[in-house]
Write a structure and sequence with these properties.
mainly alpha, about 100 residues
Length: about 100
């Protein structure tokens, strides 16, 4: 259970960062307001980052586990960025699926 929660926290950080960047860049390209979505996404990313930092302080992971976190974040940022660019609707469905899988 702890591994699944860690996975979701790692992914949620990237999801919100990529989402905020996507909204920001789309707003700049279209030269229209995004109606206040960028800041809440950035705040959520900060919240998830704090969860990860608390977990790391509590469990004191080894270098291998830290490397896994860095690798997983990089891989997920790349994959989710491509998915968000190709199909934002599918990207949001993926987020819902991940959240549902952890809550079961």
């Amino acid at each position: 259970m702890l591994n699944e929660l860690l996975y979701v926290d790692i992914c949620n950080i990237e999801i919100t960062v990529v989402g905020a960047a996507h909204r920001h860049l789309r707003s700049l390209r279209s030269m229209k307001r995004d109606h206040g979505w960028i800041n809440p996404l950035q705040e959520e990313a900060e919240n998830e980052r704090m969860h990860l930092l608390i977990w790391m302080q509590h469990t004191k992971p080894s270098r291998i586990e830290r490397a896994f976190v860095v690798f997983a974040q990089g891989l997920y940022v790349a994959a989710y960025s491509v998915l968000m660019f190709v199909s934002p609707k599918t990207a949001h469905r993926t987020v819902g699926y991940l959240e549902e899988a952890v809550s079961v």
